[in-house]
Amino acid sequence: MQKHSAYTKLNSAYTFIEILVALTIISLIFGVGYVSFRDFSRRQALAGAARGIVGDLRLAQEEAIAGQKPADIFCNPPAILNGYNFRVVNAQNYVVEANCSGGNVQVKSVTIASDISMSIPSPNPITFKILAQGTNINAPSATLTLTQKGTAATRPISISQAGEIK
Fold first, then answer.
1. DSSP secondary structure string for all residues of 49-73
2. Can you tell me the distance from the alpha carbon of 62 to that of 136, in angstroms, rounded to the nearest whole number?
3. Which residues contact 86 (CB under 8 A, 6 or more apart)?
4. Spatial contact of 132 and 140, defined as CB atoms under 8 Å apart
5. Per residue in 83-131, pLDDT tens?
6. Strand, coil or helix: what is 133?
7. pLDDT in tens, 27-82
8. What is the SS3 assignment for 37?
9. What is the pTM of this model?
C-alpha cells in the first residue's frame, strides 16, 4: 500500500506543459488589461485637461461678471476693469488675466500636459466682459480644440458670444 500512495503523490503534480499553458493565458490577460488601462488613462488625461481649461474659462467669466479687480497698479483707481482675458500663449500654455484700462494683470498661468496640445482660438484672447455683457467673440462661437498626441483624440471646448461654455 505504501507504494500505491507514493505513486499517487508523484502523479498529482503539474506537468511542464500545464504550467506553460497557464502562464501563457495569464500573460495574455495581463497584456489585454494593460493596453485597456493605458487607453483609459490617456482618455482620462485628455478629459482632465479639458475640465481644467473649462474651469479656468469659468474663473475668468465669474471674475468678470463680479467686476472683481485684482490689487495691482494697472487696475488701481482711476483704472477701469474691462473684463477678463483667457489667452492661449502657445499649444502648451495659457493665461487668465484681468484686462484693465491701465494694462493687463496676469491672474493665473497654466502649462498643460506635454502629450496634449491646444489650438489657438479666434479671437485670441477671449475676453469676458464685465457685468455679464458677453464676450468679444464676433462669430456665434469660438472653439478651442485639445488634441492628444499619442492617440490623436480630440476634445472641443466651445465658447458662445454670450459667454456660454460647453
1. HHHHHHHHHHHHHHHHHHT---SST
2. 16
3. 56, 57, 60, 94, 95, 96, 125, 126, 127, 128
4. no
5. 999 999 999 999 999 999 999 999 999 999 999 999 999 899 999 999 8
6. coil
7. 999 888 888 888 888 889 999 999 999 999 999 999 999 998 999 999 998 999 99
8. helix
9. 0.80
